[in-house]
Amino acid sequence: MRIPIQSVTPASGTAEVIGWVHEMRDLGGLAFFLIRDRTGIIQVTVPKKKAPEAVLAAVKAVSRESVVRVAGTVKAMEKAPGGRELIPDTFEILSMSESPLPLDVVEKVPAELDTRLDARFLDARRPRVAAVFQIRSAAMHAITGFFERAGFTNITTPKIVAAATEGGTELFPIAYFDKEAFLNQSPQLYKQMMMAAGFEKVYEIGPIFRAEEHNTTKHLNEATSIDIEVSFADHNDVMKILEDLIVETYAHVRNTCGTQLANLEITDFEVPKAPFPRLPYAEAIGIAQKKIAEPIRYGDDIGTTAEKAIGEEMGGHYFIVDWPTEIRPYYAMPYEDDPSICRAFDLMHPRMELSSGAQRVHEHDLLVKQITKKGLNPENFEFYLRPFRYGMPPHAGWGLGAERLIQTMLDLGNVREAVLFPRDMHRLVP
Ligand code: AMO
C-alpha cells in the first residue's frame, strides 16, 4: 500500500510511494529520481545493470512531473533527502506529463505572476506556494474556532441581491430573469437584519464582489470577507473582538505552521500584541500631512500613499477611529455630542487597510435620513429598513478581508498570491 513519502525511513524495509517526478538525473550506470508528494521528497536510485527490464523501460520513458508509482527496498543513504533512498522493484507511470512544462516546478527559472496564475495547478505544486494556502487554511480554522468558542452563529446570506450595500458604484450587474440584480458587495444589510431576528452574534465567511477598476496589488474583484455583527455592542466592543481574533490567528499559525513558514523562508514571524493603538482620524491626517508631498485635508479619504506614511509611523497593527461621518457609509452611527464624526473604525496593517467596521445606526428615522443624505433612495432599502421598525437592538460589527490578512501576515507582494484563482479586471480564466 502507498505510504506518504515523509514517513518512509530506512527502518521501513520495503515501501511503495506515489508522487510526481520532481527531478531526474542519468549518470550512465545509475539513474536518480526525486519523487515528491505533498509530504516530502524521496530519492529513487536505479542501478541499471541490476534493475528489472520493466523498470528500465519506464525510467527511460518518463518525463518530469509525471505521476509514478514506485515500490522497492529502502536503504539508508546519508547524502539523499531524508537520509534514505528507494531501490525500485517496480516503477510504473500512472500519468505521463507533457514536456516542456509551462512552468518550472523546481523553481530554477523564476516565473512572472501571470504565468504562474495561468498554470496555477503546476504553480501550487511548489512547496512555497502550497505553504501559503496551507497557512490560509490554518488561519481560517483558527478564525472559525474563535467564533464558535465565543458563541457566534454562522450564517449564510444571499450573494444575488437587488440593492447596493456600500453605495452604487463597484456593482456587478447580472441577468436575473426579467429583473435587475447584482452580485453582493458585502453581507452588511443581511447581518444587520439578523440582529433584528435576535441572533445577537453572527459571523459569515463568504465571497464579496466589487467591480473595482483599479488594477492594484491589494484589490480583487472577488474577495473573501470575514464578517461579524454583534447586538448590545458598540464600536469599542467589536474592535476588541477584532484585535483578539488577529492575535489568536497569528498565534495559531505560528504554533501549527512551522514547516510552511520555513518553506516561505519566514524566520521572524511575530504575533502582534493587543491592544492595538487607536489613532483618531484627525491625527492620522496630521501625520500624513507632515510626511507626504501630495495634498491631503481633513475630510479626504486616506489613500495608498497616506496609508503607507501613517503605517510607517505606527509600525504595527493599529485602528483609525473617529471618522468624519460624511465619508463613512450611511449605517455608521454618529457620536451624539459631535455628529460630524462617527463610531466607525478601520483596522490597519502598516501596509494597508485590513478591516472596516462601526457601531451602526439602529434608529429607523436617523437611518432614512442618512441614506437620503448619501443621495440614495430609501425606497430601494425598504427590505432592510423594515426590521428597524419592529425592535432593532443597538449593534456593531466589521468586515475583514481574508486575502489581505494572509497577504500582510506572510508579507506577499501581491494579494493575488493569497487567492488560488484570482479574479481581476483581466483575469476570468482559469
Ligand atoms: P469595506 O468595504 O471596507 O467594508 O470592506 C471590508 C474589508 O474587505 C476587504 N476588501 C477587499 N479586499 C480585496 N479586494 C477588494 N476589492 C476588497 N474590498 C474590500 C478589505 C476591507 O477592509 N460592510 C463593510 C464592513 C462592515 O462595516 O461590517 C465593508 O464591506 O480588507
Write the layout of secondary structure elements.
Elements: E1 14-26, E2 30-37, E3 40-47, H1 53-61, E4 67-76, E5 84-95, H2 113-118, H3 120-123, H4 127-149, E6 153-154, E7 160-161, E8 172-176, E9 179-183, H5 188-196, E10 201-209, E11 222-231, H6 235-256, H7 258-263, E12 278-280, H8 281-291, H9 304-314, E13 318-324, E14 341-349, E15 352-359, H10 364-373, H11 382-385, E16 395-401, H12 402-409
Parallel strand pairs: 3-5, 6-10, 12-13
Antiparallel strand pairs: 1-2, 1-4, 2-3, 4-5, 7-9, 8-9, 10-11, 11-16, 13-14, 14-15, 15-16
The structure holds aspartyl-adenosine-5'-monophosphate.
The site of aspartyl-adenosine-5'-monophosphate has 23 residues, from strand 11, strand 15, strand 16 and helix 12.
Give an account of the 3D structure:
The chain is α+β, with helices and mostly antiparallel strands. It has two domains: 5-95, Nucleic acid-binding proteins (OB fold (Dihydrolipoamide Acetyltransferase, E2P), Beta Barrel); 122-276 and 316-418, BirA Bifunctional Protein, domain 2 (2-Layer Sandwich). The chain is built from twelve helices and 16 strands. The chain has helices at residues 53-61, 113-118, 120-123, 127-149, 188-196, 235-256, 258-263, 281-291, 304-314, 364-373, 382-385, 402-409; strands spanning 14-26, 30-37, 40-47, 67-76, 84-95, 153-154, 160-161, 172-176, 179-183, 201-209, 222-231, 278-280, 318-324, 341-349, 352-359, 395-401. The strands form three sheets. Strands 6-10-11-16-15-14-13-12 form an eight-stranded mixed beta sheet, sandwiched between helices. Helix 4 (127-149) crosses helix 6 (235-256) and helix 8 (281-291) packs across helix 9. The mean pLDDT is 96. The protein binds aspartyl-adenosine-5'-monophosphate. The site of aspartyl-adenosine-5'-monophosphate has 23 residues, from strand 11, strand 15, strand 16 and helix 12. Aspartyl-adenosine-5'-monophosphate binds at residues 166, 186, 188, 210, 212, 219-220, 223, 225, 227, 353-358, 397-399, 401, 403-404, 415.
